[in-house]
Amino acid sequence: MNVKAIDNWSSGNYRYLIASVAAVRLVLESYVAQWQNQRFSDEQAPIQAAIDAASALLPTPSALQQLCREFKLSDFERDLLLLCVGMELDPSFADLCARSGGGEELGFPTFNLAMSAFAAPHWDAISPHRPLRYWQLIEVGGGKTITQSPLRINERILHYLMGVDCLDEAFKGIIEPVYYSGELVRSHDSITTQIAAILSNKWGNIRQLPITDYPLPIVQLCGDEVGAKLAIASTACEISGMKLAAISARVIPTVTAELNNLILLWQREARLSRCALLLDCDEWEREDGAKENAIAQLMESITTGLIITTRDRRPAPKRPLITFDVHPPTKQEQLEIWQNALGEIAPSLNGQVEVLVDQFNLNAPTIYAVCSEALGRIAGESKDDNSPLPLGSSAPLPQLWDICRAQSRPRLDDLAQRIDPAATWDDLVLPEAPRQTLREIAAHVRQRTKVYQQWGFASKGGRGLGISALFAGSSGTGKTMSAEVLAGELQLDLYRIDLSSVVSKYIGETEKNLRRVFDAAEGGATILLFDEADAIFGKRSDVKDSHDRYANMEVSYLLQRMESYQGLAILTTNLKDSLDTAFLRRIRFVVKYAFPDAKDRAEIWRRIFPKNTPTEKLDFVKLARLNVAGGNIRNIALNAAFMAADAGEPVQMKHLLEAARTEYVKLERTLTDAEVKGWV
């Protein structure tokens, strides 16, 4: 309805309700007069004329008419309901109820009064199985008998009859209305259209399902695109002329009585306001059996429009279920969203938007948030130096790139350790072969979209388009530093995940933990560094018992996610020989980190001190006699720097000697005279 029609309906609805209440008051006045043996002029014509005049104003039936039709109220039940409405709207009703024979102590509607005063009474109207009480349209107060107990209209029903559009107060903190106007991409349009047809009860043409007692199937939206799923559900409801409200799986009550009452009240609400319910299971991990049972009961009991959002498919209940997988926007759709969000700046970026699309896999809300923040920064910088908004060249790209990285962090920050890259290629002391492999890895990450998409290698098949690497070598040989160098080179975030803390003894938990990490990282194509791969890998391909079988499943899941991951995933291990060759074949790059020889150790010592660190008479050849890896060298240098700073001196060999002794104690090794001969 347009605004004028809505105004006409509101006015006509109120007048219709007041006239209907007046008709009930007339019946009561006639009954009171008869009870008191008084003459009464029963002039119904003016009231009927008022009802007819109000009906003429209504473009659609009044709320009272719709409620009676929806809940199949008899004329007597309708009059009983209006008796309770009159008590709320007309001050004279209390006196009429009292004068009807009950006295002042019964100055309220009762079932006994309705049975006596109204036409065509029937006893079962007050039965718990009839609409008035089953749907809680009226409430029965405490009293000596059912027939003499006070009757009161339910507050939500009163608001509904008055034309007030609001959710039941009983839903506060549990079910909330959804107001969402997110933009849909083309690939989501068809899903939206099909859901709208389902909600409009035209789903028979979409998919053949068994005929059941349920008028509508459940709609299930699966995937990690939370915002897109909400936009699809909201838009589908709008198309089908319905509203949408949402409930989180976390707040569904598990107490049977509470759950049953919630389901009943929602069924009532859905009929009153043509509202579908969105059951949000996106963050629910299915760990609570009682909660799972409550969710299943809700799914099977609600017969009105029900949409479920979940990351993984839920098992089908008794009610028919139609599932749609909601995928992220395609690269082309992302490009169009970027161009629209950037506005006039987009054409001036000379193809740099495509670089962002190639690297980051962002949905529409995130892209708009990134552009809004970036344009705000650029406008602020331009205002500060009185220069116009920078167009052309590459001015806006650093802001956009950094904000894209920041937007991808929140979910991952709770699951892994972010490492700020500090090392550069100059800090990395490695033979040429592993350095060249690292350069190839960087090239693969940079040119992934060009080779796979533009040059067509993606169509040639293979296990996946992800880039995976194994860094193998003893502790301190440069594995983590290499990951830092790659992150700095590619200007990407680096997150470290300790696989030993991810692995769980409970079946399925390891995969669940890994899924959280990959799902959270996918949007930003972050570099993932899985440390201690020995915790999950090993020579496990020979299945001897159920534990081996599940261990292999964990490894297979990790490799499958690495192969499909849009970014770079790195495994580190101290024991490459312990890894099964069948698993190694699925990893694209293997970088071996040898223990540094004396020449390499001397070079590491030369590079270990920052340029601002004061040093004095350091002999790197003598320092290289220490038979330790690069990580230990860094620890010794750092400890020595603190000693020198505390003594107010530059770093000298004596400080390094003391620091070396401390490090060797930690390594549970003996510092030999040959290693430190001639140091001081």
TrEMBL record:
GO terms for molecular function: ATP binding; ATP hydrolysis activity. It holds the Pfam family AAA. It comes from the Bacteria. Residues 465-597 form the AAA+ ATPase domain. This is ATPase central domain-containing protein. It comes from Microseira wollei NIES-4236.
